[in-house]
UniProtKB/TrEMBL annotation:
Catalyzes the transfer of an acyl group from acyl-phosphate (acyl-PO(4)) to glycerol-3-phosphate (G3P) to form lysophosphatidic acid (LPA). This enzyme utilizes acyl-phosphate as fatty acyl donor, but not acyl-CoA or acyl-ACP. Its main location: membrane. It comes from Fictibacillus terranigra. Coiled coil: none annotated. This is Glycerol-3-phosphate acyltransferase. Its EC number is 2.3.1.275. NCBIfam families: glycerol-3-phosphate 1-O-acyltransferase PlsY (TIGR00023). Probably interacts with PlsX.
């Protein structure tokens, strides 16, 4: 019963859309109807600016961290902890408070991965920064992070295999959420950061 309550709490936490709240609070409208239409940090950057985007990035990341921390504090294993984080990601992507229309869960997934397995997330993050700096495609960097972090979890054996497998599934979910970005990247018309 305790784990069920944790999962529900994680989903409800994940459903809080900070990009929506901040954009509305600044009287800019519904973030999901502005810019790219995505309720996340990158679109917040495009619509409002750097400061609000950083706030969204950190707060969305915290949404992924808290359930993992909570599960581990309650003595659940890493697979259960990552599953709790996944519930927050699901909440971010399909938020109950906003008609189940949310973001792509990148920052929240980063939060889950950082707490679950810091070194792989750190290494992947380093390469992602280089990729975004070189190409200015945030979506490409996000996709690389979602692939590389679970791969490094397996290679470095920082967490149990079943937990790394679950993390891989979360990565696949994020890549699937980026399917339109992937299509635009392949066609050469993906929007670059700063444009």
């Amino acid at each position: 019963m305790q784990i069920v309550l944790l999962f529900i709490g994680a989903y409800l936490l994940g459903s809080i859309s900070f990009s929506y709240m901040i954009t509305k609070g600044m009287k800019k409208g519904d973030i999901r109807k502005l810019g790219s239409g995505n309720a996340g940090a990158t679109n917040t950057l495009r619509v409002i600016g750097v400061g609000p985007a950083i706030c969204v990035l950190l707060l969305d990341g915290l949404k992924g961290m808290i359930p993992v921390w909570a599960a581990l504090a309650m003595q659940y294993n890493m697979t259960a902890a990552i599953a709790a984080g996944a519930m927050s990601i699901i909440g971010h992507n399909w938020p109950v408070y906003y008609g189940f229309k949310g973001g792509k869960g990148v920052a929240t997934t980063i939060g889950v991965f950082v707490v679950a397995s810091f070194i792989p997330a750190l290494i992947a993050g380093f390469f992602v920064i280089l990729i975004i700096a070189a190409t200015r495609f945030v979506s490409l960097g996000s996709i690389v992070f979602m692939i590389l972090t679970p791969v490094l979890m397996f290679i470095l054996k920082t967490i149990p295999t079943e937990a790394a497998l679950f993390a891989s599934l979360i990565g696949v979910l994020s890549i699937w959420r980026h399917r339109t970005n992937i299509s635009r990247l392949l066609k050469g018309n993906e929007r670059k950061i700063g444009h």
